C-alpha cells in the first residue's frame, strides 16, 4: 500500500527560523505556491494518481482558487492546522481552536466534511497525546501525524507500529496512518518525504519503496521548487530547503509511474481495521 500526500504550505512555513513564526510578516514574503501548483496537479493527472492534500487554513484563505482546483480535480483535502504552529507548543485549548479554525475554513470553501489531518512538523509526541482526543472530538477520522522516530519537532522514539493502526482514546477511536521507516545501519530512516526524499538517490528511494509493504509520503510544494527565495531564511535552513529540489519532480514521476499510489480514504477502504493493532492513549 503506497499513499501519496502533500502538505500545502509556503516555502517560509519552516520552524528553524523563528522570525517567520509571526503571521503578520507572511504577507510581506514572496509567494511561491501559485508557481508550483499547476505542475504538480498536471503530473498527478498525467499518471492518473490520487493523493491527499493537507492544507493550512491560512493557505486556504489566501489561495481559495488553488484549493477549489484541488477539490474540483477530485483530490482529498484534509487539515494541516490553521497557522502551522507546532502542536506541542500549544495548550490543549489553543490546539483545539486552531484545529477548528482550519476545519471550518476548508469546509466553508469546498462544502465537504474534513476527515483527515496531519500535524505541522509531526509535532504530536508523548507530551501532548491529548491532541488525538481533540482530533476525534472535531470529526477527524484519519490521522497521519505519527512519526516513528524521535525528531527535533516531534515524533516517538522506538514507536512499535510501522503500518496503519488504531488509536483508542476516551473520545473514541482514530485510524492512524503513520510515517514508515527503514532500518539503515541500525538507524531508522524516514525516506519518503521532505529532505530525505530529495537527498537520497532515486535508486535508493526505489529500493526502499520496493521493499516496503506500506509507504506513507509527505511532500511539500517547496520540495520541487529550486527557485525558492533565500530571504528570511538562515543559510543552513535555505540549504536544507534547496538541496535536491532540481531532481525531485523526476523522482516523484518515476515513483508514480512504477508504483500504485492512492489517497488516505481509498487506502482506508482496503484495510480490514478489525485486524489492526489498537494502541490505547489515556
Any overview of this molecule?
The chain is an alpha/beta fold and 282 residues long. The protein is built from eleven helices and twelve strands. The chain has a single domain, classed as Alpha-Beta Barrel (TIM Barrel), CATH 3.20.20. The strands form four sheets. It has a five-stranded mixed β-sheet. A three-stranded parallel β-sheet has the order 2-3-4. Strands 1-11 form a two-stranded parallel sheet. The radius of gyration is 18 Å and the shape is globular. The relative contact order is 0.18.
- The topology string of helices and strands comes to EEHHEHHEHEHEEEEEHHEHHHE
The CATH architecture can be named as Alpha-Beta Barrel
Put simply, the count of helices is: 11
Radius of gyration: 18 Å
- Strand order in the sheet with the most strands: 5-6-8-7-12
Overall mean pLDDT = 88
Instruction: State the total count of DSSP E strands.
Output: 12
Structural class: alpha/beta
What is the strand content? 5-15%
- The dominant shape is globular
* Number of individual domains: 1
Name of the CATH superfamily: Glycoside hydrolase/deacetylase
Into which percent range does the helicity of residues fall?
25-40%
